[in-house]
Amino acid sequence: VDDKQENLFSLQRLLQIHNFNVDTAISGEEALKKILKNFYALIILDVQMPGMDGFEVAEAISGYGKSKDIPIFLSAVKINKTFITKGYNSGGIDYVTKPFDPDLLLLKVKTFYRLYEQKRALNEMQHILREEIEFRKKAEYELSIANLALEERVARRTEELFKINTELEASNHDLQQYASVASHDLKEPLRKIQIYSDRIRRQFFQENPEAMTYVEKIITSSQRMTILINDLLNYSKLSGDGFFQVTDVNEILQELISDLEFLIAEKNASITTSGIPTLEVIPGQIRQLFQNIVSNSLKFSRKEAPPVIIIHAELVEHKLFDSPRSESGDFCRISIKDNGIGFNEIYKDKIFTMFQRLHSKEYFEGTGIGLAIVRKIIDKHNGIITVSSKENAGTTFVLVLPVSQHKVSHQPALNVL
Q1: In which residue ranges of the chain is pLDDT below 50?
Q2: 20 to 30 Å CA-CA from 150: which of 116, 223, 252, 407?
Q3: Exposed e or buried b for every residue in 89-123, given b needs 16+ CB within 10 A?
Q4: Cβ-count burial of 279 within 10 angstroms (0-12 exposed, 13-18 middle, 19+ buried)?
Q5: Of 83, 80, 87, 172, which is closest to residue 125 (Cα–Cα)?
Q6: Pairing mode, if any, of strands 331-338 and 394-402?
Q7: Which tens digit of pLDDT belongs to each residue from 357-405?
């Protein structure tokens, strides 16, 4: 919504190029008329318009039941704190100053669009669930005289709906976390901090060692923050849908070893693998799982001993860490063993938790998210994972994955302590 045609045209073309269906209005009054007739996933309002300005339109939209949950962007050339505060108080979820960065605006639009669609899907599913609850209340009376087939049908439908609702709630929670990070525009300020700090260091502080040290700490901290943002984005992506396919995991491992060849050569490391059976997995996620664990083994190595990493796989009968080996088993047990610095096993329950670090960042870089990603990938694949370790004697990760996702979905659950 903008009273200037040139602004409408440029923004409309930008969004249409990225496959968004875009409607426009040249005044607040026209926008309100369209909102009464149509459904929108996102509204971008210009603040300074004749007649009804953007603040008034935002307040009107927020008070209308049909559109009160639609995300609203407010845009203006003024960055005064008073204007920004007024924008949020009017019902806006973000305030964008002109001229805006197209890439940053697209990132925000895509994020809030996905969040709105997910919320709408969750509301629809909750409505279906409420209807199902009412149906079940009515069915409870009929179950007393119905046969076993009807009981199984109702139970199956209820279980399916509960599972879908739980997955939607978890996905919606992850999307909200991702949106809250992305909407604070972290990446762009960090990039500028790095660029200008490096320029200051090279141009002004070459002969001032103390100032040089402080500037280098700024650059290092901003680089670490950039890595943290990327890791958080990678973690949030795991909540999306993934396509399982029968995959040769050995090829993924060889590609990974090839990609890490410079680091392997620098550490004088050796990696040996045994044949891993063909598994039904999400290839990209399994590659990330092995990359995170192998990279950890290379990073947390002992100075006095070259890293030795052994990856061994075997088929087993059950989804248990100590399940007996079986050539026709439905599960694959994979162990990844190294001879690194290890850790005290009193911390083994914490290492798969977000932001948990067992070693100081001054000695080992990292964000504490890598193993949390590993745990989430294992959960996504209906598997289990554990770790054993001893200080200065190495670490062993053991994971158990289904050979076929279709088979495991039909197997009875085993109680595991």
Answers
A1: 183, 355, 359-364, 366-367, 410-417
A2: 407
A3: ebbbbbbbeeebeeeebbbbbebbeebbebbeeee
A4: buried
A5: 172
A6: antiparallel
A7: 554 444 445 446 778 888 888 988 899 999 998 888 899 999 999 999 8
Token output for 172: 């919606």
In order of 315, 331, 354, the CA distances from 337 in angstroms are 18, 19, 23
Nearest Cα to Cα of residue 404 among 385, 388, 381, 380: 381
Cβ atoms 253, 310 nearer than 8 A: no
Q: How far apart are CA 291 and CA 252, in angstroms?
A: 10
Q: Choose among 95, 107, 65: nearest CA to 115.
A: 107
DSSP string, 144-182: TTS-HHHHHHHHHHHHHHHHHHHHHHHHHHHHHHHHHHH
What span, in angstroms and rounded, lies between the C-alpha atoms of 91 and 56?
A: 10
- Tokens 């004697």 belong to 393
Alpha-carbon distance of 332 to 268, in angstroms, equals 30
What single letter denotes the amino acid at residue 246? V
